[in-house]
Amino acid sequence: MTGAKKQVLTRFVDRLKHVRHAAGEPSLNQLVELTAGMERPLPRSTISDKLNARSLPEWDFVVSFVTACKAFAEKSGAPLERDLIDLSQWDALHLQMLRGVDEAEADDRLTAAAAAELSRRSSRVASTVAPEPQPVPATTGVPRQLPTAVRNFAGRAPELAVLAGLADEAAATGSSVVIAAIDGTAGVGKTALAVHWAHQVAKRFEDGQLYVNLRGFDPAGSAMTPAEALRGFFDALDVPPQQIPVTIEAQAALYRSRLAGRRMLVVLDNARDAEQVRPLLPGTPGCLSIVTSRSQLTSLISNEGAHPLTLSLLSTADARDLLGRRIGADRVAADPQPVDEIIESCARLPLALSVVAARAASHPSFRLADLAGELRRARGGLAAFDSGDPDADVRAVFTWSYRRLSDPAARLFRLLGVHPGPDIAPSSAASLAGAPVADVRGWLSELARAHLVEEHTPGRFRFHDLLRAYAGERARLLDPEPDRRAAVHRLIEHYLHSASAADRLLDAIRDAPVRLSAPIVGVTVADLADGEEALVWFTVEHPVLLAVLDQAAGAGFDLHAWRLAWTLTQYLDRRGHWRDWADTHRIALEAARRLDDKPGQAYAYRIIARAYGRLGRLDEAREHMRQALHLAGELGDRKGEANAHEGLSWLCELSGDPRAALHHAEQALGLLRLAGEHTLLARELNAVGWCHAQLGDYEQALEFCHDALTLNREFGDRNGSAETWDSLGFAYHHLGQYAEANGCYQNALELWRGLGYRYYVAETLTRMGENHAAIGALEATRLAWSEAASILDELGHPSAANLHARLAA
Length: 809
Hints:
It is built from 37 helices and seven strands. The protein has 809 residues and is mainly α. Among the domains are: 3-128, no CATH class; 157-310, 3-Layer(aba) Sandwich (Rossmann fold); 316-394, no CATH class; 698-809, Alpha Horseshoe (Serine Threonine Protein Phosphatase 5, Tetratricopeptide repeat). The strands form two sheets. It has a five-stranded parallel beta sheet, with helices on both faces. A two-stranded antiparallel ribbon has the order 6-7. The protein is elongated, with a radius of gyration of 38 Å.
């Protein structure tokens, strides 16, 4: 045989020798003894010939040799790698060797042997690819492979009810096997649920229960092969080794044949993907398979009809129940506040709660308040959950899932750790990563399949606090600080420019205190079509924007902080979020002070005063508005002075001083005319007209307000038009022109509703009700006031009580 062909055989024999060496070097006599009971025992002379490449090692020899080495290693305690004894891998290597040898000269002795062996193996494979179902042989016992029942199992009542329904389905006559696919993030309790429920229904599957941990997310990366899992099942089903075919297809067919006609429960735990599971699924009715995985086994659902069941975090009540079962209900009941803090620190994740419970149970003298303090001092990190056991270490469990990510998805996951939460949209994630939205959508989907994030509503992704802490740890470990800061910069720019665009759609007339420069490279701005979409965007992003504002101020992005606060002004006022309005602008004021930005400070003072006015804190509001007026005067900013006077006018009206209100309104109007601010004149003309109406000069009020309405229409100012229609309605009402007043109020309401100003809707409805009452339309009055009171109740506005009293009267 040629030298090249000889090398093929030599390499294969060297692998056999390596297995013998790794097993602890059993002697030839020991190998003979170990195979004495096998179908193909190994003669001593044959072993020597094969290992010296003097004769061809047939497949039967390989199976007996590797099996004997495995048995010797088990007796001697030598650690053998799974790959060395995986017969499915030896199967492929053996066929490769035979084909390589067979390519030599036809008269070569070894080549002829290889050709004959290839022929025998081909016939054998063909006969075992689709074996005919055989009668089930008598077994030495019914397989009971379930792990120990879960002690102190808590919660999951809805999920258990779903699984109970699937068991009923399996019990009924059907045409296919029933499969439950349980997925969820690391540590959420998938295995605990599957094993707990399997024990509950085990008696319903009288032919036995099979269980295997497929190690799909093993920290060493050595996921179990389907062939390895099937060998364990064959052992449990008393299938003689010599009857096990070579190929995985044939093995799966034999497995399904052995389960035919039986009622079996099969638990396939910790699966990597659907391909790892498919050969292990029974194929006949009466069997039930439970599959658990950290990934969403989508193709198993679509192709095999599996029933998906995604586990979320425990409810607070179930988390408390879990702790009570592990450390004692009396101990939990005695310290409710520390228990709630522990539950929050553990993010309601069962694995984290179990680690803390184990610490508490092993130290019964420890106060729960002290354990809660340990978690608090960890500040959301994972060090407090390190139990020393890799299977129960939160960080290690997360790492198993993280290692399976593609590099771009892993980087995005790490960067999500610097996002302040509570959730994120693809365009925001794209800015965080500095990548196209289309690419980021794919990475987010990958993270969702791995249950490292959750798409809790369409297009919104989140993860629990412990995963956020883990992502942050990985980022600090792998991503340089400049890269992390650049990601935060892109993120803040995204929200600032998106919020600015949304604000302009809400009110194009509103004048910004500063003009934003173009966003930095890598930033994606939210694509919004109109004011309605802008209002929806603000509503969805509201909690995120507040968190990002805090982050910007804390990370040294002060200019971004006060500008972002400004972009939120209209939305927060329209929706009645006045406490948020005050809080955001207190942050803006501090940021402007750090920058020594006087215009920014004046602006922040003015908006805080507005928020305090809405909240009824009138003394504080006046003080802040006067500070704004003082700073604007120092700067020679006439428009700023006008805005401050307009604010003081409004506050005087709220305080019941209409003459002072008129004085400040006229001051503001004069300053705007001097400054040439024609787009803002209409709103101030309306303010002067309103003050005249409050003083009883209704004809004068109509004159100013009609002038304002003309300018509003000219500039397309819907906000200004709404205010002016409301003022005209008030004036007409007091002139006894009730029909005209009602028409004006209707126009104002239509605009306010379209703009989303809930408080102003309530104000106009209140005045419309008074107009209805003046003509005796009591039912219309009741309807208007009831809707207004409902809005004011939701906003927590103090005027709601007065309106309820009027309704009662």
